[in-house]
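Narrative summary of target 7.
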Amino acid sequence: MKRILLLAILAGGVVMNGMAQSKGSLGKNDPKAKVILDGVSKKFSQLKSVVANFVLKIEGANNSVTDSKKGTVYMKGAKYKVNLDGQEIISDNKTSWTYAKDANEVTINTVDPNSSSLSPAKLFTNFYDKDYLYRLDGETTEKGKVLQNIEMTPTDKSKNVFKVIVSIDKKNQNISKMKVFEKNGNHYTYEITSFTPNTNVSDATFSFDPKKYPGVEVVDLR
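Modeled conformation, tokenized:
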């Protein structure tokens, strides 16, 4: 489920994560990368809401694609909802709900504002200054877009994720793609296929109504 939260980030189409050390400056962040990340964060802070579609590709250690899924993420301030192939992750920034369609089960948790785990909302803030080291790893051109690639690594080396490469559209200052590397050799690539800002998203989107899920089993961990 935490991986899906990462994709939400991606889905939001805008920021973050990796092994990073500033080139020529061991253990320090790259000021060029910070300028880019700050620009993405500032742009997002000015949006009322975001709806983004994405594709998640899961690769094994041999780089073979083992699965591919499409999803949608909705964001409004610190609130978010992620839909991904029979799964929903919803948060109103106080309570989170994780729903599994095949089991017709929802797990409820209290949101920990001090948690270091990534969420769609957090990825649009300057969280990267606290939890990651980062550096600019050059530019590439894909599908007619110039992408600025930022390599990031968590300062907490106990995390399963050891590196993330975030590719930001240089022209639009939106995240175009993010690739997550795990210590077990698995890779997860989140690619934004559409990004729509300032859409009309109601607050009801960011809460779970059990009446709409007949027979749902509720696991309340609060």
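Helices lie at 2-12, 31-45, 128-131.
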